[in-house]
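User:
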Amino acid sequence: MGRNFGEILCVIDSLQPGHKSRIATAADWRPSDKVINPPSIPDEKAKDMFPQSFETIKPYLRMVAVV
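Assistant: Predicted structure:
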């Protein structure tokens, strides 16, 4: 069974910011897309960590940009 090498690189790219910043990436995430701030991080702390890009879509879905 063959694998698309580009997809493997995309998975690795999505794991790296998640490990550094305690964030989550969506299934079809690309490096320029926003990431998900998990509910385990309170809003106040997330706003301190990502002051320019914190966005609340729903109470359980908060997006931030990671450079």
